[in-house]
Amino acid sequence: MRFSVLASGSTGNAIYVATDRISVLIDVGITGKQAEAALETIGVNPAELGAILVTHEHVDHIKGVGVMARRYGLPIYANEKTWSELDGQIGTIKEDQRRFFSVGEKKELEDLGIESFGISHDAAEPMGFCFYQGKKKLSVATDLGYVSDRIKETIRGADAYVFESNHDVELLRMSQYPWSIKRRILSDVGHLSNEAAGDALLDCLTGGAERVYLAHLSKENNMIDLARLTVKNILEERGLSVGNDVHLRDTYPDRPTKLEEL
């Protein structure tokens, strides 16, 4: 299984996951042109894509979904409540491209196993995904206000995680955001802080050299170095050696991460 975080942050999110038999996008929150450029950067021909999975209907996750689906004839997988919000936002989608993927459901697309799970966010019915191929597992969990025990149990045991580390609490509190937006971000249906990300990861990691991609960083209320340092300190305070037991990776709003294989 190969993957790359094509874009991550408040301006747009997209992830590429592939096996030898199928490749999929998780969200396309960037333009179709940007998605194509990101794929080409990692040596992937967009015409070889097989499907798009949608976590939820916020624009930073669906901006390019309709364009990519129409351009390459891709089926779109989303749950029923998300589809009710997508209609009217992503343009006309042919009936045979509309697929349903319920919360808690497991599917197999060719040799790629996919399991969805519910997350806490202010969307119709937001989801995260775990991907399985052979003995390898990739867990994707972003856009969630808190990490429940059920989510931890579902994503635990992965070889790699794409995990939200959205904001630094003090930077957010001091920001120019209206209090209503600050309250939303800090709520149980908002976004994970760097500290919350580190604390949640402690309950998921085994110290088996897992890779953790810190994702969905706020442009205004976080910094890559700050997110990495905060999570690193929390993990090392509990005895995990960053660089040995676990490897932290950065993600970017404007360029893809290196295509990695599990």
UniProtKB/TrEMBL annotation:
InterPro entries named in the record: Metallo-B-lactamas, RibonucZ/Hydroxyglut_hydro, WalJ/YycJ-like
Molecular functions per Gene Ontology:
hydrolase activity
Q: Name one Pfam family in it.
A: Lactamase_B_2
Statement: the UniProt record of this protein carries the keyword Hydrolase: yes
Q: Does the keyword Hydrolase apply?
A: yes
- Which chemical reaction does it catalyze? 3',5'-cyclic UMP + H2O = UMP + H(+); 3',5'-cyclic CMP + H2O = CMP + H(+)
Q: Metallo-beta-lactamase domain location, by residue?
A: 11-216
* Superkingdom to which the source organism belongs: Bacteria
Q: Which UniProt keywords apply?
A: Hydrolase
- Stated role: Counteracts the endogenous Pycsar antiviral defense system. Phosphodiesterase that enables metal-dependent hydrolysis of host cyclic nucleotide Pycsar defense signals such as cCMP and cUMP.
Q: What is this protein called?
A: MBL fold metallo-hydrolase
Which organism is the protein's source? Brevibacillus fortis
Task: Provide the organism lineage as a comma list.
Answer: Bacteria, Bacillati, Bacillota, Bacilli, Bacillales
